Amino acid sequence: MATMWRRAMTYLGLGPDDEYDDYDYDAPEEPQVRPAPRYAEPAPDSQIGAVRPLPREREPEAPAAPLRVRSSVVRPLTPQQPSPKPYAMSPVSFNEAQEVADKFMAGVPVIVNLQGAERELSRRLVDFASGLCYGLHGQMERVTNQVYLLTPTDVQVSDEDRRRLEERSL
User: Fold this and answer.
1) 72 falls within a domain
2) Helix runs in the chain, H state only
3) What total of structural domains would you count in the chain?
4) Which of 157, 4, 93, 59 is nearest to 148 (CA)?
5) Radius of gyration (Cα) for the chain, nearest Å?
6) 31-70 pLDDT, tens per residue?
7) Is 147 within a domain?
8) Is 139 contained in some domain?
9) Is 11 within the bounds of a domain?
10) In angstroms, rounded to a whole number, what is the distance separating the alpha carbons of residues 159 and 48?
């Protein structure tokens, strides 16, 4: 029985390693010589398949621009336009979700007031709006109980508008 276990352990590599005892770990390794590949080398005068570098054409040099001192202030390339007024809606059916998406994709912030909506409709619209904001890299935030503000990526709602929203929905 012990012989069977010894053989099984040796087979699995768990037994004694007698053949490695003679290995000298401190001896430098001898470099191994690899045989040359077995393919025919092209004749030296043959140009078939040869890669030759082409001379670069010189591009005309542009006149040097005068050096400008740059300021450390970052300025937008296009003038900032005031953000559009938020579009407020109180949906009564899920069919109005498309109107929310259309306004949001047009870059208009949308206020969704779900205070008078049924619980199931409210849950579905919140799920839809959060998916819409996530998919288009916008932002969704709860203004008050059952009132949500959906803001597109390139639009910012001012603090004054947010304060008015909170006051209006109370």
Assistant:
1) no
2) 2-12, 97-105, 119-135, 159-169
3) 1
4) 157
5) 37
6) 666 666 666 555 555 555 666 677 777 666 666 655 565 5
7) yes
8) yes
9) no
10) 72
